[in-house]
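Worked example 2:
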Amino acid sequence: MTDALPDIGIGTYENTDRDQCAASVETALNCGYRHVDTAEMYGNEAAVGEGIAAADVDREDVFVATKIHSQNLAYDDVLEHARGCRDRLGVETIDLLYVHWPIRTYDPDETLAAFDRLREEDVIRRVGLSNFTPALLEDALDRLDAPLFAHQVECHPLLQQDELRALARERDHALVAYSPLAKGIVTEVPELVAVADETGATPAQVSLAWLLSKENVAAIPKATSEAHIRENLAARRLDLTDEQVERIDGIDRERRQVDFEGAPWN
């Protein structure tokens, strides 16, 4: 397993067609990705595992992350379901396991103690959290014995997550941006379109490059076609100027894509 979190990964949310999911993961790895993100809730861990196994890349070079469903966060359930995730992925150890949402059966003491135990038993290598508010994140950090490796949240130029990015820097964990293209909305953002025109890139690449310009930030854009997989990866080579980054920083409107009544921030 690679020691560091690769700064861009392949997201697999809503990629539920088994053959397509396996093929997109295999393609991404063969194109140069080394970070694959899935979740128990997505129902595609077996397909992700097939894609990893089929790729012309050594397993130890691939960073594999998944998440425990919010209905399975009681202590014993976490232990059982983490092993199920591992088996479906076809790996000996999960590189990074997240608490997917701090809702439903999430209990800070029970849930986080189970994650600590999984790490001690080498079922997982690293502990992650996802969709936590700053207050919930601080509380979890106080309870975990294991160091927090990553916090995954929606993050893009229309939801910049300044406070959570600052916490990632201060508490020395990665912020992993899901929906980094705002489900395609970034293609319509005038500031991103303007920078894309200036750089000869696409607005999607500009959004990803902006994220990667930030300290302790990685991104996991979802893509299924080889063209989009390659387009997203090429954002790593796009160097934005300080002025371009500042212009994007200055976007003062928000448009969250993943939201529901029971979300932790509501």
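Residues 137 and 163 are 11 Å apart (CA to CA). The mean pLDDT is 97.
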